[in-house]
Write a structure and sequence with these properties.
alpha+beta, 3 helices, 3 strands, disordered C terminus
Length: about 80
């Protein structure tokens, strides 16, 4: 089972509670080492794919390898009516 995926955070110019993301689901990786090696070797290509996906309007800011459980948390936004203590 694939455990790690590459996520590109796109740059935003104004403060916001959400960020545009580009998620590279394929290939997925079994461990963080494989993910980082692929990401480092292919960073230019991955950034270019993200730029194209956003029609050249939003530049990428950073790229990280994310565990699938953390990815679910990134993609699930909390209800704005919920309060955190």
């Amino acid at each position: 089972m694939l455990k790690f995926f590459i996520v590109v955070w796109m740059s935003v110019t104004a403060p916001t509670d959400t960020y545009p993301l580009y998620i590279l689901y394929k290939p997925g990786f079994e461990n963080i080492k494989e993910c980082r090696e692929y990401m480092n070797k292919n960073s230019d290509i991955i950034f270019q794919k993200a730029i194209v996906e956003y029609n050249f309007k939003i530049p990428p800011e950073r790229m990280v390898c994310v565990h699938r459980d953390n990815l679910r948390g990134i993609l699930t936004r909390p209800n704005k009516d919920e309060t955190t203590i």
